[in-house]
């Protein structure tokens, strides 16, 4: 019967489409599973590097705080500590990944930068953006493309080294000494755990000095220290060093957060693919069973007609 042949052909095509779709999802699951395993391997190394850098950055903040309290003449203090006296031009250093497939990692950092930039622009400030990582520049290209003054691609780097942080720090210092901005703020994602990365804004210039109340003791104890050379000279050197140190910390935190976010995203994608394969397999088996049943009925009906 022509109608029966057409129906059988349609069902065969449908079964073939289901088989192709199941095979396609299985291939995708292999990729996401492999990416999850690679991210897990990279995460351990990146997490260890980020955690190892934290005590150094914290100690740097402590030393800067102690030296800053020893400075009596703020008029002659370094602009890196007290600022330029105005806040008309803001430099935003946005750190994101150069690759995608890491959940909302890049989007969350770009969102924080977008909110901060819009607030500054609404106050009549001038905004300049340095995008470290390709994805951040792509995310802000439509709204703040004219404010992005430089893009630094990190895709070719297998490991984050202090040399790259020092290179970025030197660029920031050169811009500051040339009077191209008044305030610099760094945006990165602080690594908390595999499932938690916190977008963070840290002011670099003027230096962010941790505040302590009078009831807290100095981390150096109650002893009085004499510095050689003078506190101002040491502070000036450490303030410049602190910029590269904090940028290095941000890069390491970002590297760990990126791998943690990618591991979590690929794990979720793998589980979703497995659920989809199971659902498609059930649909395929039911449709195949219905087709076999229909063919058996047609054979029996034909035999009875004879």
UniProtKB/TrEMBL annotation:
<keyword id="KW-0406">Ion transport</keyword>
<keyword id="KW-0813">Transport</keyword>
<keyword id="KW-0066">ATP synthesis</keyword>
<dbReference type="GO" id="GO:0009579">
    <property type="term" value="C:thylakoid"/>
</dbReference>
<dbReference type="GO" id="GO:0042777">
    <property type="term" value="P:proton motive force-driven plasma membrane ATP synthesis"/>
</dbReference>
<comment type="similarity">
    <text>Belongs to the ATPase gamma chain family.</text>
</comment>
<dbReference type="Pfam" id="PF00231">
    <property type="entry name" value="ATP-synt"/>
</dbReference>
<keyword id="KW-0139">CF(1)</keyword>
<keyword id="KW-0472">Membrane</keyword>
<comment type="subunit">
    <text>F-type ATPases have 2 components, CF(1) - the catalytic core - and CF(0) - the membrane proton channel. CF(1) has five subunits: alpha(3), beta(3), gamma(1), delta(1), epsilon(1). CF(0) has three main subunits: a, b and c.</text>
</comment>
<comment type="function">
    <text>Produces ATP from ADP in the presence of a proton gradient across the membrane. The gamma chain is believed to be important in regulating ATPase activity and the flow of protons through the CF(0) complex.</text>
</comment>
<dbReference type="GO" id="GO:0046933">
    <property type="term" value="F:proton-transporting ATP synthase activity, rotational mechanism"/>
</dbReference>
<dbReference type="GO" id="GO:0005524">
    <property type="term" value="F:ATP binding"/>
</dbReference>
<dbReference type="InterPro" id="IPR000131">
    <property type="entry name" value="ATP_synth_F1_gsu"/>
</dbReference>
<dbReference type="GO" id="GO:0005886">
    <property type="term" value="C:plasma membrane"/>
</dbReference>
<dbReference type="GO" id="GO:0045259">
    <property type="term" value="C:proton-transporting ATP synthase complex"/>
</dbReference>
<dbReference type="InterPro" id="IPR023632">
    <property type="entry name" value="ATP_synth_F1_gsu_CS"/>
</dbReference>
<keyword id="KW-0375">Hydrogen ion transport</keyword>
<keyword id="KW-0997">Cell inner membrane</keyword>
<keyword id="KW-1003">Cell membrane</keyword>
<protein>
    <recommendedName>
        <fullName>ATP synthase gamma chain</fullName>
    </recommendedName>
</protein>
<dbReference type="InterPro" id="IPR035968">
    <property type="entry name" value="ATP_synth_F1_ATPase_gsu"/>
</dbReference>
């Amino acid at each position: 019967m022509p109608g029966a042949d057409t129906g059988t052909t349609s069902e065969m095509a449908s079964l073939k489409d289901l088989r192709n779709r199941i095979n396609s999802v299985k291939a995708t699951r292999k990729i996401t599973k492999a990416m999850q395993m690679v991210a897990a391997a990279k995460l351990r190394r990146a997490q260890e590097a980020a955690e190892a850098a934290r005590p150094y950055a914290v100690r740097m903040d402590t030393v800067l705080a102690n030296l800053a309290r020893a400075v009596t003449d703020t008029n002659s203090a370094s602009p890196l500590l007290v600022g330029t006296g105005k806040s008309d031009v803001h430099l935003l250093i946005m750190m994101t990944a150069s690759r995608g497939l890491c959940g909302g990692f890049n989007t969350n950092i770009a969102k924080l930068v977008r909110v901060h930039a819009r607030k500054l622009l609404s106050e009549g400030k001038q905004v300049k953006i340095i995008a470290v990582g390709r994805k951040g520049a792509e995310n802000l290209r439509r709204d703040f493309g004219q404010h992005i003054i430089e893009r630094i691609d990190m895709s070719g780097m297998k490991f984050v080294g202090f040399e790259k942080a020092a290179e970025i720090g030197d660029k920031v210092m050169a811009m500051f000494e040339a009077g191209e901005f008044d305030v610099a703020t760094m945006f990165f994602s602080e690594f908390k755990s595999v499932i938690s990365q916190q977008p963070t804004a840290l002011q670099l210039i003027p230096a962010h000095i941790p505040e302590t109340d009078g009831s807290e003791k100095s981390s150096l104890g109650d002893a009085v220290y004499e510095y050689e050379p003078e506190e101002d000279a040491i502070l000036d050197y450490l303030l410049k060093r602190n910029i590269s140190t904090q940028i290095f910390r941000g890069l390491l935190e970002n590297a760990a957060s990126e791998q943690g976010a990618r591991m979590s995203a690929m794990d979720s994608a793998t589980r979703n693919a497995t659920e989809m394969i199971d659902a498609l397999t059930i649909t395929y088996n039911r449709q195949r069973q219905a087709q076999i049943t229909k063919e058996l009925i047609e054979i029996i009906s034909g035999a009875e007609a004879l």
